[in-house]
Write a structure and sequence with these properties.
Elements (H helix, E strand, L loop, with lengths): L11 H4 L2 H13 L5 H9 L1 H4 L33 H10 L2 H7 L8 H5 L4
Helix pairs in contact: 2-3
């Protein structure tokens, strides 16, 4: 997510989420079971999460975050109508990023290979 660097100075609130978004990307790839559509749904759900929206109405597979309940003071939430949110959304939904993301649906973590699990 190299484009996250561009948010550093202009939108520090958005840049604050860099590690969480990166972790969410890996989790999405690990848990999509090779389903590219599910990978995209899981990844883009971070846009709800960063806005402190953890349950939402949608006729979709994902209608809530899969984490335990959080307190409101645990994160620096970003309003969906704010410039930092719009900037993050552009990064996460960028066409070049989405195109590259298609390759992540077959996620295999190298630690599984080296640990002898496979």
């Amino acid at each position: 997510m190299k484009h996250m660097k561009t948010l550093d100075k202009k939108y520090p609130n958005a840049f604050f989420w860099k590690t969480s978004i990166s972790n969410h990307l890996w989790w999405s790839a690990q848990t999509c079971h090779g389903d590219g559509n599910l990978l995209m749904k899981k990844l883009t759900s971070i846009l709800k999460h960063i806005s402190n929206i953890h349950e939402w109405d949608k006729d979709d597979e994902l209608v809530k975050c899969e984490h335990a309940p959080l307190s409101n003071d645990e994160q620096l939430w970003i309003n969906q109508n704010s410039d930092p949110y719009v900037a993050l959304k552009k990064v996460i939904t960028a066409k070049d990023f989405i195109k590259d993301l298609a390759h992540a649906k077959h996620f295999i973590h190298t630690r599984r290979h080296t640990s002898g699990i496979l």
